[in-house]
Design goal:
By secondary structure, the chain is α+β, with helices and mostly antiparallel strands. Helices cover about 30% and strands about 15% of the residues. Strand 1 (about 45-50) and strand 2 (about 50) form a beta hairpin. It is globular, with a radius of gyration of 22 Å.
């Protein structure tokens, strides 16, 4: 249990709760859930510019990272077709992957196919089920994809001023504006309480909020004097109690609750808001293809990691379809902006390619 680990090393409850957020981020789990300590490890195992566990903002927004990878690929001869949805993987008579078919009917032939879509989309939608072992299909169907995350992107006309550290009169950014600000995280009990509400199908009445203001470090993201605020919030169940759907009223009611919480810490925040974009778990699934809205393509619980990700005997990036590889967050070692799954899958694919 993460709670036991934190109790062993720290005394301050707010510090323990703040660290605990990285153990439950993106996970329908509580700090008291067995195995939650791994997700904390997962979030600090990487490094940035030689600093282990460090995080950073991407200049130009997260999309700039994708663009940098795209530019590196095209410089080496890759062809990228954006907005061209794949209909299914093309299989030869021997059952081997031979390319993909796009929704407009175009066939793209290839000796190898790598998919960074979720295991659910890759194996349950893009591949004929009769070509896959039944136990493999069952395992993919049973992957826990519950997600607690609602992401809210906010445009504000001034920098938030927090009661704990008010802004100076000239409105210049302070050190905490450059960091991840954790709200409603005074105790691990609060996090557990928020989790419990979601397990009963109710959005948390006092949600866990991670607030970032990337425009403080990257002014080009917003007009002068204005800022963009990123809110990573949980817990919100994908399926609401009583079969209720995430309609416009429900989405806005939850966002209002989040904004009320922020207002308690930073009076004037609500008045500064000039626009907001609310992405509930169903929105994240519909827009980005995240199963259940899960940012990791599936829970990072111990039964879905290492040799069991995405399924036992298929953690090495190869799939039951020869020539088809899984290289996204649903593959080992899981989600996060680290690129490990893609790098490892590429090495396996390159090794196999030499024998074709």
């Amino acid at each position: 249990l993460l709670g036991q680990i934190l109790d062993q090393w720290f005394e301050s409850e707010p510090l323990k709760a703040t660290l605990a957020t990285d153990a439950v981020i993106g996970a329908m789990a509580s700090p008291h859930t067995p195995g939650s300590g791994y997700v904390l490890l997962h979030h600090v195992m990487g490094e940035l510019e030689g600093r282990r566990g460090a995080w950073g903002y991407v200049a130009g927004g997260m999309g700039a990272l994708s663009q940098a990878i795209a530019h590196a690929a095209t410089a080496r001869g890759a062809h990228i077709f954006a907005e061209k949805a794949v209909c299914h993987v093309l299989l030869g008579r021997d059952g081997r992957a031979q390319g993909v078919v796009l929704q407009d009917g175009t066939e793209v032939r290839s000796k190898l196919v790598l998919s960074n879509a979720s295991p659910q989309i890759t194996f349950l939608e893009l591949v004929p089920q009769e070509q896959l072992p039944k136990d493999f299909v069952q395992r993919i169907r049973q992957v826990d994809t519950r997600s607690p995350v609602t992401k809210i992107n906010v445009a504000v006309d001034r920098l938030p001023s927090f009661l704990a550290a008010p802004n100076p009169r000239h409105g210049q950014a302070l050190p905490h504006h450059q960091c991840s600000i954790h709200l409603n995280c005074e105790s691990t009990h609060l996090l557990h309480q928020a989790f419990t509400e979601a397990t009963h199908g109710h959005p948390s009445s006092r949600p866990m909020i991670e607030l970032c203001i990337p425009s403080v470090l990257d002014p080009g993201l917003a007009p002068q004097g204005c800022h963009v605020v990123s809110l990573f919030t949980q817990y919100t169940p994908s399926m609401l109690a009583g079969g209720q759907s995430w309609d416009e009223q429900t989405r806005n009611a939850y966002a209002d609750r989040v904004f009320d919480c922020i207002e308690d810490y930073a009076p004037g925040f609500k008045a500064s808001v000039i626009g907001r974009d609310i992405l509930t778990p169903p929105d994240l699934e519909r827009i980005f293809g995240l199963p259940g809205g899960n940012i990791f393509h599936g829970g990072m619980s111990l039964d879905q990691l290492y040799f069991a990700r995405p399924a036992p005997s298929y953690s090495g990036y190869q799939s039951p379809i020869p020539g088809l590889y899984l290289c996204g967050s649903g593959a080992h070692p899981g989600g996060g902006v680290m690129g490990a799954a893609g790098r490892n899958a590429a090495q396996v694919a390159l090794k196999d390619f030499r024998h074709l």
